[in-house]
TrEMBL record:
Keywords: Aminotransferase, Decarboxylase, Lyase, Pyridoxal phosphate, Transferase. One of its GO terms (molecular function) is transaminase activity. Its cofactor is pyridoxal 5'-phosphate. Coiled coil: none annotated. This is Aminotransferase class V-fold PLP-dependent enzyme. It comes from the Bacteria. InterPro entries: Aromatic_deC (IPR010977), PyrdxlP-dep_de-COase (IPR002129), PyrdxlP-dep_Trfase (IPR015424), PyrdxlP-dep_Trfase_major (IPR015421), PyrdxlP-dep_Trfase_small (IPR015422). The keyword Transferase applies.
Amino acid sequence: MEPDWEGPLGEAYARAMTYLQNLPERPVGASAAASELRRRLGGELPQGPGNPTQIIEALADGVEGGLVATGSGRFFGFVIGGATPASLAADWLATVWDQNAGLYAAAPAAAVVEEIAAEWLVELFGLPAQTSVGFVTGGQMANFTALAAARYDVLRKAGWDVEADGLIGAPAIRVLVGAERHDTVDRALRFLGLGTRCMVPIAVDGQGRMRPDALAPELGQGPTIVCAQAGNVNTGAIDPLDDICELATDAWVHVDGAFGLWSTVGTPIRGIEKADSWATDAHKWLNVPYDSGLVFTAHPEAHRAAMSVRASYLIHDAEKRDPLDYNPEFSRRARGIAVYAAIRALGRSGIVELVDRCCAMASRFAEQLREAGADVLNDVTLNQVLVRLGDDDLTRRVVTAVQQEGTAWASGTTWHGRAAMRISVSNWTTSAIDVDRSVEAITRCVEIEQARSTQG
């Protein structure tokens, strides 16, 4: 029997276009309760085949109200970008082509596309020419991969082969981390068997930047990895990477640049090229569909030593780049295709314009909210805005109210012991109108919650 591609794919395309076309005016937050979603989508295990087109129809109907419009220009939570038309279309094709992008032999075109995109990325970020690149799921696995390479390299220099002998009996590794690091660093160290007690927190300044004067005394004490940051998750602040790299000449310096690394495309981050590894997300400021992370190392041999695998049933060619040599996955989708399309469509100038516009919109947020009486807690230097809307209780209630109201969506956080709303402008479509509408919604929610407090 011939498969019916047109029915389910046609229905999916129609639903997708309706969703995308309605995105600018769609309520940003989810409205359906989990119980309602389970009622619509659940039921007994199907005992036989179903009609593919009807299944897609039922799926699209069933999730309605349970989708957060993260692609909206008024979604400002969790540093999540949207998806540009070229990257979304390329990602659809990657799904249709269904390439297992681990080996060149299994997916030649996917491997070549990733190799080209990798070269472009190294040039865009101003990294050393020999830098190796891995396409991973996100910042978590980018940090994991980079730190695996770092673990191999610092122990190799201490006379220990961790890939062959493991960690039992190995020299202790000290990992110097900023006190305001992202939790994915801690988690990566757990995954790597180093544990979180290997970390030595380094004092930071008022914006969360690692202080070189606090780092210096901790260096030179055996195998050491320094985890710096390009883009504090709350403030957007970038560590003084040039000073850090100049101090840590005997350590491996890793830069967690989940979103902040993209800012160097337009305004180079001083000293960025002196580090040993870098991590970032393409599904943040490059605005490609989830999931898409990137890891870079200035030491390809360490990168491959930590990640590569050889087996009799695999086909390798010394002249070809096998993607599995640079990431922890064996079988994986060809996520580099969307990255390639995004870079082709935007070019360097388009990426710079996207980042600059998001930063300008963040500044617009800060100015208007400050004028409305809010307390902006950070220096708005990138795309992050920390806002306090009264005391802790009122701030948290306003965050919830904004999420439920639907005009915009921002997340809450705690900064220096105080509750705050965290606004992250990361979407390529966010405009001044989106910011103005969102500020109006936030101030309305503040007034409503203040009135409730007075009545209570």
